[in-house]
Specification:
heterodimer, A: alpha+beta, Alpha-Beta Plaits, 22% helix, 19% strand, elongated, B: mainly alpha, Formate dehydrogenase/DMSO reductase fold, 11 helices
């Protein structure tokens, strides 16, 4: 099993609800708290597992805004785990989730250096590294209804831009989406083989202008349009 | 990358300590300049131990949760950081036994065997220190074999300068020590020159491969945070091109240029000028190490709007 997220860049509206839901759930979750520094001051900052950036693709006027949520990719070849000297960082064999054992971490920052996706952030109050757990305390919670056993970010996304599932199973919805929409990995050249995939924007169909057609009806319509003021 | 002073001090000090010990052992093995006196040998050894120990101790200052530092010895199968710790700790018993036997001047064969193992661990530690940086695929300025090579050569170079000062003060025939320092100075200059040349031009990942939009221009509109984050603080550190050039010039001036003029005195070298040369080299290495961090550009900067690293 290889659990991860598939993020649809075509429909993400960049509302940051996933980041807020993530913070809300995980602040009291297994790796909580997610400390804030100077939250109401001039320079608010803090620990977040999920961050959304916004890019312009192409050049005006042929450009498009892309909202880009990023969290831990739960890489197959996770260097953050190999470089960890204490064994605090580990990747679960059963579902591929990468976690940090808060009781073992010494806060050397080395794993964050090895992560190309900026998924790891040091919590200054505990002195330990923290990161996305794929809401491990939700997805296996037998007390929750089955449909709620998903990461908080996925549940909250109003645009349904986030999907959670097993990317090892070719029959899963996430695998199908990656297959059909040409889902891709970030920074593939570094060889981390991230589990999370991104779906590129769809090619929009041209919007019919209504001016087409050379028949009699088209000519009548054209005449009416010229005569009638609307 | 943010240059943490504790790590700069650690790598410069422990590099010099290991280099000093290795050269001290080789001087003993080959009777360099007739060999150092027992007292000079012990003093140099003690200095090496202090440099290594002090460096290791300072390396714990940058930990956010030092109470778990002991666990850093456990993952030596995969982590270069753990290997560095294991090798560095393994170095001490061999080095101390060697130095004690050398000071008492007993059991020469046993002493040389112990010293040899201490040297092996010193070399392994220096190499591991370099590999901590060189193994990171995320930072192209570090992900090159020139990094561990430079760590080893600069460690030996600074060690040779300290050893030269001790040889001069102890009244030994210092010319071989001077030649040794000179040879290492030239190696250090060349390896850093090649390194700076190698990392000069950007290559590798771009903002396009980072976002997956490889067929058009990608421009950051908004980072999504109102103020700095852990990522911007740790990886966002930048120095201007002019400052970088100045620091490089500073490194070559202090670590190679000035010491070279002092070493050029040859047989007439005074202990004071050798000491000044040693201070210059250590200062130059601090500049070099600071720049080594400041110049490194992590790929996460691509997500924050950098077009290339």
């Amino acid at each position: 099993m290889r659990l991860g997220l598939v993020i649809d860049l075509d429909v993400c509206v960049g509302c940051h609800a996933c980041a807020v839901a993530c913070k809300e759930w995980n602040a009291s979750g297994t790796t909580g708290p997610l400390s804030d520094y100077d939250p109401y001051g001039a320079e608010p900052s803090g620990v977040w597992f999920n961050r959304i950036r916004h890019y312009e693709i192409g050049e005006y006027p042929n450009s498009k805004t892309i909202n880009f949520p990023m969290s831990c990719m739960h890489c197959e070849d996770a260097d953050c785990v190999t470089v960890c000297p204490t064994g605090a960082s580990y990747k679960r064999a059963e579902d591929g989730i990468v976690l940090v054992d808060q009781n073992k971490c010494m806060g050397c920052n080395y794993c964050s250096w090895a992560c190309p996706y900026g998924a790891r952030e040091l919590d200054r109050s505990s002195g330990t590294m923290k990161k996305c757990t794929l809401c491990i305390d939700r997805i296996y919670d037998q007390d929750l209804p089955v449909e709620e056993r998903q990461p908080a970010c996925v549940l909250t996304c109003p645009a349904h831009a986030r999907m959670f599932g097993d990317l090892d199973d070719p029959g899963s919805a996430v695998s199908a989406a990656v297959r059909e929409r040409g889902g891709y990995q970030l920074l593939p050249e570094l060889g981390y083989n991230p589990t999370n995939h991104y779906l590129p924007p769809r090619k929009p169909k041209p919007i019919p202008s209504g001016e087409s057609g050379h028949g009699v009806m088209a000519k009548v319509k054209k005449l009416v349009n010229r005569v009638v003021r609307r | 990358m943010h240059p943490a002073f504790s790590v700069i001090f650690f790598t410069v000090a422990s590099g010099a300590g290991f280099g000093l010990f290795v050269l001290l052992y080789l001087a003993d093995l080959f009777h360099l300049g007739g060999g150092l006196t027992a007292d000079a040998n012990a003093l140099a050894g003690l200095l090496a131990i202090c440099f290594v120990g002090g460096g290791l101790l300072s390396s714990t200052f940058h930990l956010a949760n030092p109470k778990n530092a002991w666990r850093a010895f456990t993952r030596w199968r995969t982590s270069w950081l753990a290997r560095e710790g294991v090798f560095a700790v393994a170095f001490f018993p061999f080095a101390v036994l060697y130095l004690v036997l050398a000071w008492l001047d007993v059991a020469r064969d046993l002493r040389l065997v112990l010293g040899f193992f201490a040297c092996l661990f010193a070399w392994a530690t220096l190499f591991s220190t370099g590999m901590i940086y060189a193994c990171l695929k995320t930072i192209r300025q570090w992900n090159t074999p020139l990094v561990p090579a430079a760590y080893m050569v600069l460690g030996h170079f600074s060690g040779a300068m300290i050893l030269l000062v001790i040889a001069l003060y102890s009244g030994a025939a210092f010319l071989p020590y001077e030649v040794l320092a000179l040879a290492l100075l030239i190696s250090a200059a060349f390896i850093k020159a090649i390194y700076y040349f190698w990392v000069m031009r950007p290559y590798g990942s771009t903002i396009n491969t980072a976002t997956g939009f490889t067929r058009g221009k990608v421009r950051l509109l908004d980072t999504g945070h109102t103020h700095g984050t852990f990522l911007t603080r740790e990886f966002g550190f930048q120095v201007r091109a002019g400052t970088r050039l100045l620091l490089k010039a500073g490194f070559f001036l202090f670590a190679t240029g000035l010491p070279l003029t002092m070493l050029a005195q040859g047989q007439a070298l005074q202990a004071q000028s050798a000491f000044a040369a040693m201070v210059c080299v250590l200062l130059g290495l601090v500049l070099e190490r600071w720049l080594f961090f400041a110049e490194a550009r992590h790929v996460v900067n691509l997500f924050h709007g950098a077009q290339r690293t």
